[in-house]
Amino acid sequence: MEEGEYKSTYNELASVRCVFEKALTHQQAKCHQAKHFWLADREGYSCKSSESSAICHELLENLRKNSRFVLKVHDINGPLPHNMEIRVQVGGLRGLRQQLAAGEASAERVDNVQATVAQALEKYGSLQNLPYSEIVQSVTQYQGRKRRQRD
Questions:
Q1: 150 falls within a domain
Q2: What range defines the domain where residue 99 resides?
Q3: Exposure winner among 30, 75, 86, 101, fewest CB in 10 A?
Q4: d(Cα 110, Cα 53) in Å, to the nearest integer?
Q5: pLDDT digits over 65-86, tens only?
Q6: CA dist., res. 19 & res. 89, Å (int)
Q7: What is the mean pLDDT of the chain?
Q8: How far apart are CA 67 and CA 58, in angstroms?
Q9: Is the dihedral of CA 20, 24, 30, 35 positive or negative?
């Protein structure tokens, strides 16, 4: 399958793209609004709700903006390089969940992104009011998978 054909088919399957797709494909998060699909040998996620997708998009933009310093990036216009994007998505979701858990021990994986975001909106009133300085600490701490050593 040619790359152009792949992207065209992907856009048909994921008309409302899941903005936390990297966190989901790395099995660090799940979401009840996500719809999983395989295209050729690659996996992807679309969102069942355009309203939820818009809220998640705003959250991800805020996470990127507030993570600039820890990522040593001055200006962010759109998606970050792959590894940085994974750190922002996974670390940001984990940090948000930790703020909502209020000191309770919590699992590594976020079990429902949409429910976590809804709970945050209920607690803080808006995405602008989230404690990003604390959330970003989880972005700093998240390391992802270790590189394999080559023989």
A1: no
A2: 3-141
A3: 75
A4: 17
A5: 999 888 888 777 767 888 889 9
A6: 9
A7: 87
A8: 14
A9: positive
